[in-house]
Amino acid sequence: MKIDTIELRRIAMPLVSPFRTSFGIQTERDILLVRVTTPEAEGWGECVALLEPVYSSEYVDGAQQVMERFLLPHLFAQGDVNTTDVAPLLAPVQGHRMAKAALEMAVLDAELRLTGRSWAREMGGTVDRVPSGVSVGILDTVPQLLETVQRYVDDGYVRIKLKIEPGWDIEPVAAVRERFGDIPLQVDANAAYTLADAQHLAQLDAFDLLMIEQPLPEDHIRAHAELARTVRTPICLDESIVSAQSCVDAIMMGAVHVVNIKPGRVGGYLEARKIADVCAAHDVPAWCGGMVETGLGRAANAALAANPAFRLPGDISAAARFYARDIVTEPITVEDGHVRVPEGPGLGTMIDQAFLDEVTTSVTTHTG
Ligand code: OSB
Ligand code: MG
What we know:
Elements: E1 5-21, E2 24-37, E3 42-47, H1 60-76, H2 83-90, H3 97-115, H4 119-122, E4 129-131, E5 133-136, H5 142-155, E6 159-163, H6 170-180, E7 185-188, H7 198-202, E8 212-213, H8 221-227, E9 235-237, H9 244-252, E10 258-261, H10 263-266, H11 269-281, E11 286-288, H12 295-304, E12 338-340, H13 353-359, E13 360-367
Parallel strand pairs: 5-6, 6-7, 7-8, 8-9, 9-10, 10-11
Antiparallel strand pairs: 1-2, 1-13, 2-3, 4-12
Residues 55, 135, 188, 190, 238, 289-292, 315, 317 line the site of 2-succinylbenzoate.
């Protein structure tokens, strides 16, 4: 495909309630969207970089700048670009995986729409709906947490993930386990602990959790392997898995029992698919993580999670869990604890242009 234009659009999306994690509180998302146009098609990408470099080193202003200064010129330098060319073309630029992923996503969407193929088919999907889990932020009090979890249980979510940090871990987990019986439950620490906390984290073993996600810092792979010898709760890695190679390494080192796959974190949906294949080959269960995406990113995530390597419910909650109104015409809903895998060409969903324009804060258009 020949790329005519690449539009970078920023939107401001308030959250329905603050989302607190060990790395901070989000109340509104500032999201960078990518629209690629070719003579015959257009495609959309969503960059998952957050406002500040607190989850990983990337942040939304930096993602836009690296696109404008370094990534777009590499794409435009090539006359004809297929989706499989994007990662190799951008490889001279180190890191910046979320920025690269958003560009590849837009090109893939254009290519699939042009050829009438669905995202799920491209991802090796085999099911038409996937189980939906919800990620619950840190709250001020345990009663508030129980009330919040109750709402999500009533909404039908089949798995609850609690964000934890030192000072908000054993007690809230015990309370949720006690109140909600044997509901599938897991925790996510976003790297808030160190190996010195191993005995403390072992107290979570009493609550039969599906996993503890990213207890230690991103580059502490060996420490996760060590922790796995002290705690019985399965170890899941999120931040540490930045590529298929790092996934293989973590598996071989015994540092990971369950893999959270986030396409943005690993440089795109094609790399995410590779990681799914790595997990399947090693019989390691995978699940699809979330980055508080709009309906664009969530549609692609639901399609990715239709691949059979995804053996646990993902952070693929309804649009309404984070946003009062979505930028797509058919926002994701949870029915019977599941979300539907999009079937149409590409992302299989349409932009609500009027609402998109309403939330847009800037647009820049780039040509080769
Ligand atoms: O660590 O999984 C995480 C959201 C933003 C940044 C990091 C994480 C999260 C979530 C997923 O917990 C929330 C969601 O998108 O449903
Ligand atoms: Mg996580």
